[in-house]
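As a warm-up, study this chain.
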Amino acid sequence: MTTIISKQEETLPTHFNQERIQAYIQKVTSIQSQEYIDKVIRAIEAKAQINTDEVTSILINAALENVDEVNTEWSFEAAKIYLHKLYRQARFHRGYDQEQKYGDFYSLLKQLTDKGIYTPQLLEKYEKAEIERISTLLDPEKDLLFDYIGLHTLATRYLATDHQKNTYELPQERWLVISMHLMQDEPREKRFALIAEAYWALSNLYMTVATPTLANAGLAHGQLSSCFIDTVEDSLIGIYNSNTDVARLSKDGGGIGVYMGKVRSRGSSIKGFKGASSGVLPWIKQLNNTAVSVDQLGRRKGAIAVYLDVWHADILSFLDLKLNNGDERQRAHDIFTGVCLPDLFMEKVENREDWFLFDPHEVRNLLGFSLEDYYDEQRGNGSFREKYEECIQHPQLKKTKIPAIQIMVRIMKSQLETGTPFMFYRDEVNRKNPNKHAGMVYSSNLCTEIMQNMSPTLQSEEIVEDGTIITYKKPGDFVVCNLSSINLGRTVQLDDDEQEVLQRLIPIQVRMLDNVIDLNTIDVKQAMITNKKYRAIGLGTFGWHHILALKNLKWESKEAVEFADQLYERISKLTIQASIDLAKEKGAYPMFAGSDWQTGQYFQQRGYENDEEWRSIMDEAATFGLRNGYLMAVAPNSSTSVIAGSTASIDPIFKPFYYEEKKDYKLPFVAPDLNHRTYDVYRRSAYIVDQRWSIQQNAARQHHIDQSISFNFYVPNNIKAKVLLDLHLQAWDSGLKTTYYVRSTASDIEECEWCES
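Now compare it with the structure written out below.
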């Protein structure tokens, strides 16, 4: 006879009873299958002794084994069983009534605050009566929106536990704690209504917040922003200070982008001694060691992307950094690489012409300017190509001539082997930078969607009369990414409902993002300054393939491209309007004066001025300002899209249905809302769809996005070089600002979580 033993010692062991198991299945799930019940009973009877958690695992795994392209509902049944386990564990650890799914919310806040898990601010800023009113918003029925994979991801990675990893917080409480945390400094008279709106948006899975916000909001530790971008000064102290800042941010869960284009190349002079510099590679290897050594509380190693200009003298060795063969002393396998490409280089590639490489330190010394500080203000004409030509013509400046196509071949070879380098089209980025009056964008972040002004932080020291050494820092623009994404699969399902949901969702979403800026605690002070200087946010989307399937729009179609154009224009209008409305209430961002938002150039560049609705927005922007200097960015969000039950970012799915092997069972992945109506759209999956259609879709949406898009290429490992080159040329020529990974069927690419939203 099998004995079922509760894991909680307070409960006495009970003997196995078939009727009890059947009653449990009927109570918790909608399962009617006798075959399933018989299978579960056989698995339990095979054990001499079994605890309640093991019974739950048998119930879940038996349900998951039934998931396939036709029977997708079994994933939701498995989620119900897992939910019941979470409810049971929370009841035990929090000590509330057996019949309740959710316990007293105020008691939860008190318990986890006393344990040092939650920040004391929630109990300090909210009175008990207000918290009790807020708790009435909790809707346990919203837990049924999760499928098993989404719920499991949320529960194991993001729900707050005690220090022994015991379950305390439940899914709806996570949404409510996030809402309370982000609205804590709003005026008391409107705070409840704003929390209700934020909870509505999160609990309905209409949106997700960034991974750091999802994990850390309301907690006593951790910060809320996704990732950061630093610009390294060409000095020993600048390089080491940057490495220190990177380490400090990485330990708190931030992904890092680092621009190294100002650092002198190998063989450059130091203090007049020629050939003394070892170039950028040793410093990149140091960053590689930082990424490995400074992990996020032991959960995973740090993530750092390093960008270099294609005209930098070290570019060829830089492109080989992640290759699996060659001299290991010249390799850095744990960082990600990105290359900054001017239009002129792409033209030289297209025309099979020569390209010249320079040392940035020598350019500064001999010509009195920094080549990286220029870009072409117009397509085919501008100050970068003029300065580049000056460098070529200078008789004393050392230069290396190489066919541009050879560099491009090296780029593509690395991409097919390692997925990187990422491509950053710097001229288009800076032409479309709405804050070009205040700075320059040199590179992007870890996931290639953030485009914001950057500059190095400068440091000096002074000894005062009492012998104290004072360090002075002139802060540069140290970029901060604050991300959140709309779930297109839930908000844009029906034409009649689409406008109403987006109109209600985007204003609260923009407010939540704006509040992250003021609430965040970032260890690097210049990042705090930049965060409030531009008040930059990155509102994005996920579920593109999902919404195409629901609307029966084939990926490779003009209709899908037109839909992208219309939808992202609509989202852009609502996002800009929401930021204007916030500016009316709280004031414009400090650098608004002189921006393209104020002058109207942002709207004119995109041809909006002939549209009546856009003209109204343009006039309001000039009059009231915007609360946020940067607004939209489409991040990868693969794991948060799993939680929300949709498809990742703007990517096609890998397959409509597949299994992922786990240690003791197989986990089924099913395309959302997969059925006989949607299957035809889903079957054109990532490595099948024509990538040229993906470029057209992204060009359409990029037109309406002030920052950029994490856009992957999916290619076979045996792709011809000419075909991959044509994709890159089409992407650049279409006005894309960046491309992310080249995902080959032969490469194993580590997923980036830091820009999840």
